[in-house]
Batch of 4 targets.
Target 1
Amino acid sequence: DMFRMLQALEREPVNLAAQMNKPGTLETTEKPAKRENPHKYLLYKPTFSQLYTFLSASFKELPANSVLLIYLSATGVFPTGRSDYEGPYDFGGVLTNNNRDVLNGETVHKRNQAHKEMHCLHPGDLYPFTRKPLFIVVDSSNSMAYKNFTNLFGQPLVCLLSPTSYPKSMQDQSQRGSLFTLFLYNPLMAFLYICGLSSMRRGLWDKSQEYLRKVYRDVGQLLTRSRSIDQAFLQFYGDEFLRLLLIRFVFCSATLRLHKMFRESRSFPETYPQLPKEDTVESPLVQKHILELAAMLDVQNLFFDSTLDDY
């Protein structure tokens, strides 16, 4: 999952030699524009202190007019009980390190079950970083804990949250990576996967990719023209990477809502703040595109082919 997200946040390399040979594309006195990729920290099963250290460094180094992107792919930690006041530490979170008995190389005594998991990253742990624009992607069985966010400082804040449950036939392949992250990385590959297609002709692949580019353009227009969408989405839409993640998220959510195997609400991704569903993930235009793509691949029987009233 980490590798796929890393690739999703990398620009395609430019073949300068090919461009130089095209007439009129590059003057001899011009230098090609430098295409920088976002700076990244990759942490594998960090302790809470390690994670917070790198989050703080990223926050400090963030240039003006920039956004901090946090991608979390981890096991969910669920609350052990209910309290009268449900705050940002009462919904659980994600487990960053599962070595529960060792901290800084030393054995730690077992804690009382009433205490919270030491290496769980709660939504409240990220509140200090909402002082700057923050874009969060959570791929976890308890991703919905991050729906209980509060924007304290008025800065743009968006969370893309994975489904918390998948159909049993999809769970068997979890070791190959998450379906949600696969949609954010390569939507066509994810589409083929949920349709049970393991291979296809190169010509059909290219045709499908071209069709998806049209779908992306239409989804982008729906996002920017919606009158009820939260402004945070539009503020992030100007960044090419975040724009692509938002568009792919809408395609993912709309596809799963139409697919006959995904019937539980827990099998659909969510956002904070909420997207206007009628303008995005339940848009008739997006649904029409998905059904046309399914028809191109001859898998239209796997999808509902009428309105949401049939649900």
Target 2
Amino acid sequence: MTAVYSSTALLFRKHAIPVTSAIRTMAVRLRLLPAAKCLFDHPVQIKIEGLPPNQEVTLKASLADETGELFYSLAYYKAEQNGELDLSQSPSLGGSFSGVEPMGLFWSLAPKTPFKRLMKKNVEQPFCIDIEVYKGLSDVTDQLLAKCTNERWFMKKGVTRIPVREGRIRATLFLPPGPGPFPGVIDLYGTAGGLIEYRASLLASHGFATLALAYFGFEDLPSTLEGFHLEYFEEAAYYLQKHPKVNKNGIGVVGISKGADLALSMASFLPGVKAAVSISGCSSNLSSFLHYKGLTIPPLLFSVQHIKFTDKGAIIFRDAIHNPCDMENKESIIPIERASGNFLFLAGEDDQNAPSPMFLNEAVKRLQEYGKQNFESYCYPGAGHLLEPPYSPVCHTSWHKVVGAALVWGGEGKAHSWAQQDAWQKIQTFLHKHLGYEMNRSRI
């Protein structure tokens, strides 16, 4: 279905212009294809019609998050001779990005307040992004030509959200529509703590029964990163494996940052984990002690004197983290060679928070030394630490509540955005390859 929006309606409300006059003076149409409502990780085509030939315009996108924080972007364009603009073909002449970037207005959204990060809290409601077309090339414009709103949802129709408070588990389970059973996945975020659901809800929208699992900083869970017991994650894995709507041939784990090395540990010690995705992760147990059945893996630490700061006071951690290959750090290395399942390693070459490309290479090297070929690895030029679902705003730097300071994550706009799209597809393909599809449907 095509969503069509006209600036005429805006004139009616604001100036009470008669219909015939409004149509004569302002027939600009802003269209979102295929529809104005979509999943957050789906692209939309933005088309504008009815402009004067070669008209210069400014496009603005904006949204307010659940705390009221404003994020915005803008780009300058010149209409074709026929008075049309198609952002899938027309290049931006400048602004938040330049060149042909069909979703540039989305991935370039930046916070009005420095160091804010866009993170969805209530996944049962969409982010609503207003798109406006103004006459002329300027970031200060007052002649609005057309406007529309893109509703970007995190749960496909029919996806079920189930809070889980069973035993020690603090989580939310997302089940795809249909009878199942579905491939099961545990989703882990990093040192931000709490219960983060948006990636899990999107994975469920693509056919995975996904458990968004909190492991500190939530309800009665530990409030700090001092140490973790793998038995907690084992309990969560057992819960998911035993669910009647989950395939019985093993589960997967997706983790980013600290969640990534926990995913590697789960795959190494828990036989039911058949696929592990490490996003910007460490090949060692990072920052915290990890305990499991009498075994303790010490943490890989960092040196304060090697921390760097930007001119705005944000922290660059990358060069402060110790090298896991040094003799005194070898005990922190996760024994991934024990795993019977498969690994997908993803990292960005511009990661300023951790040397994740080095960690990726060390993990691959270790598996190869043990004669293993159960892995895929991809390192993205220009990408930073926070490889999020597609079209997420590129977050270069943001405040970290646990650290109590702003952290530099890295990432160059276009390159990072492309990496997010590619990584998202690789994650789904990898999980389906090793966990299967919904049992009651084909791959088509």
Target 3
Amino acid sequence: LSPVCLGSLRRAASINAEYMGKCDMNTITFSGHALALYRDDDYLDDVSQTLVAVEKIKLYAYSLSRYGNSPYIYPMWGLGGLPEGFSRLSAIHGGTYMLNRPIEEILYDDDGKVRGIKSQGEEARCKQLLGDPSYFQESGTVEKTGQVARWLFIMDHPIGNTSNADSCQIIIPSRQTGRKSDIYISMVSDNHQVCAKGKYVAMMSATVETSDPQASLTPYAKELLRGWDKEIFFVSDTYAPTTECMASTNNVFVSTSYDATTHFETATNEVLEIYTRMTGDEVDLTISADPEALEEAQLNP
């Protein structure tokens, strides 16, 4: 190990000894899962994660101070606004959209590099191809990693003990449920233009760990949601690219399936990682989000 690495480990060990030993397990669990957004307790036994955890908690505190009573931002009209915004920006830069079209074949050139896709007899050409695992089920480039249970509720009331909040996120740590992984609940309302007036939409999600995932989640749904008007329960298989796919140089990039988290941190981190693999550069996140700074950046690119 280099002197820098050794110094970081010593500092991390010092933080562990000075602070973690003074906290009860409830405080440690809350900080690790609700603030630092760890999905299990493995980080507690990994001293290299100490400084990472501190930075994660600092990010939560900074976001909370910046955006008001929540560290999270949510698009009006729902998450569909994100791909809609991307499509508009893509069109400005010459992008072409072929919506609701099946992918019949991925096309490669003589060197094994991707050159496009075929859909309904038409070809769309490209130099790089990015897709989620659903497009590669028969290609042998993805492998199943598990299942995620999702339970959607439409309610006429907010979740209890949230001061009648119009939106919230609840993370139930595995330590408090006896599970191997956390349970996530997110709730939005008509204030976000995602449902009718006076209605609330909640989504409970968790990694499947039993043969009857709905039964295992029912006690938490009943206790926290206090009834609902409509419900939809479904289980989705999750996939990830194989090691061979990740190491391939054919310019095909495959993401993993969405996990059970409702805060999208893992998805965001994967986007950053794929961007670096595709371009060789890292996304510049040092740009100020202040309106004046954004305007100046547009005027002086």
Target 4
Amino acid sequence: LMWVNKVLRTLKAKSINTCSAAKSINTCSSAGSTGPSCRLVGTVVLVGCGIGYMSYKREKRAVDKALNDLTNEVAQLKETARSGNLVSSKKVTQAAQESKLPTERAQVTQKSQDTPENHLAACCDVELQKFMDTNGVPGMVVVVMKDGKIVWREAAGKSDIENNVPMTVDHVFRIASISKLLTATALCKLVEKGVLDWDQPARHYFPEYPEKEKGNPTVYQLAVHTSGLRHYLNNREKKIHEHYDTVAKGVEKFSHEELVHEPGSAYLYSSQGYALLSAVLESATNIKFDKLMIQEVCSSIFHV
């Protein structure tokens, strides 16, 4: 406010003709160069600018403090592990109990000599539990890989809450939309091999998909979510548990629908688009989609 008052005093002292510089404003032109309406507009604008500037500075200070605290915490953890000034086994056990952790990790730390590796692992266990508590996650597995090798992995929580089954590092999870990345990888490899042309309409390889009034999406447009096919309508449709014997059977559920927009004219994330893309890959190669994924993607990643 002191800054605003200073500017107002400067304007008044120099007798700046605000209205003559903005003749399109009716209130100013009608009130004259020094009319009260003009002065009121100028005051409101300046006060608004001052308040906005102060809010920006306050939020920036809060963000800077949070980032600084996080940086210091990481630095302290690294220094602790490097110097060997480890937390005692008793404190690790206490931290695990306070975080509702299974005591297996704490017991292992008690039985073995304190090392930087054990200390970091115990700290990671605590952080995993904090993450689960904050986000309502019943159980999870974390794996860290470096240079193609697993350097750390840990399971936390439960895989079955009702039956009190603990999570293990070998638990199998559904990968949900990560499958889109694997599907796109298979598409790129097939394009490189000349098996299909992604600039062709999807109907070229999968004629069961009918023509659309707004245009026929290409294989590439399916892959980059510009095909015009819709996404899930609601959570009930998203969580459907109906099994389809073939990819084509799944595509039948929405193939009769018109596109949301002309292909290539806009971006719209679409799981339906990737279902159709899966059918295209299957039809172009004459290989079942699951076997195609093993052949083109999983064999090189997981050496299966």
